Amino acid sequence: MTQNDYIHIYDRDLQRLITEMEAYTDPEEIWLVAPMISNSAGHLAQHLIGNLKTFVTQQLAGFPYQRDRDAEFNSRRFSYGELLKELYALKAEVVESIKRIDDLQAPYPKLIKDVCEGQSIDFMLGHLLAHLAYHTGQINYHRRLLSTAVIPAQK
Fold first, then answer.
1. How many other C-beta atoms can be found within 10 angstroms of the C-beta atom of residue 107?
2. Is a pLDDT exceeding 80 seen at residue 154?
3. Is the CB of residue 84 less than 8 Å from the CB of residue 21?
4. Where does 23-148 have alpha helices with state H?
5. Are 105 and 120 in contact (CB under 8 A)?
6. Would you say residue 9 has pLDDT above 60?
7. What average pLDDT score do residues 62-82 get?
8. pLDDT score at 17
9. 146 falls in which pLDDT band (50, 70, 90)?
10. Beta carbons within 8 Å of 37's beta carbon, 6+ residues apart
11. Beta-carbon neighbour count of residue 110 at 10 Å?
12. Which residue has the higher pLDDT, 2 or 118?
């Protein structure tokens, strides 16, 4: 893909994530889980913020960020309004970060571990895009399950 392709798709898919989060009729529902479901939509959104800030905005463009991955899944780091604000800011930062990339084929800076040996920035952007889409789909499913009232949700 080209740099413009990545800008377009990340902008589109981060907007899809925001739209999913805004579609909850009761803001407290983002923190609910149903039996056999591990994560709430709020925790998945926090995880996506931490993931993309770590691997795109910080690593590729130098935006400051200190990740607390454990807190992404185990605490409510944001109110509903703050979470939406963070997602809108994330979208802008990710797009700006991709604009700053000089060479998509350059090696991705090693941060923690390789996803694939010799991975390029292009490879990592594709990998992270799939991760974003996967969790956005989970959030969509979570919201629709809760709205049917077929499965009892638990706090």
1. 13
2. no
3. yes
4. 41-52, 59-61, 69-74, 80-99, 121-148
5. yes
6. yes
7. 94
8. 98
9. confident
10. 142, 145
11. 9
12. 2
Q: Quote the pLDDT of residue 152.
A: 57
Hey, what long-range contacts does 75-78 have (CB within 8 A, 24 or more apart)? 76/31, 76/42, 77/46, 78/42, 78/46
Q: What is the pTM of this model?
A: 0.91
Tokens 């952007």 -> residue: 125
> What does the block give as tokens for 144?
């629709």
DSSP code of 20? H
Q: Among residues 120, 139, 127, which one has the least CA distance to residue 31?
A: 139
Rounded average pLDDT over 112-117: 67
Contact 20, 57 (CB under 8 A): no
Q: What type of residue sits at position 60?
A: L
* Amino acid at the residue 70: D
- Residue 87 in tokens: 């997602």
Contacts of 120 (CB under 8 A, 6+ apart): 104, 105, 106, 107, 108
Structure tokens of 105? 């084929």
Phi-psi region of 118 (alpha: psi -120 to 50; beta: other; left: phi over 0): left
Q: How far is it, in rounded angstroms, from Cα 132 to Cα 78?
A: 19
Under 8 Å between Cβ of 90 and 49: yes
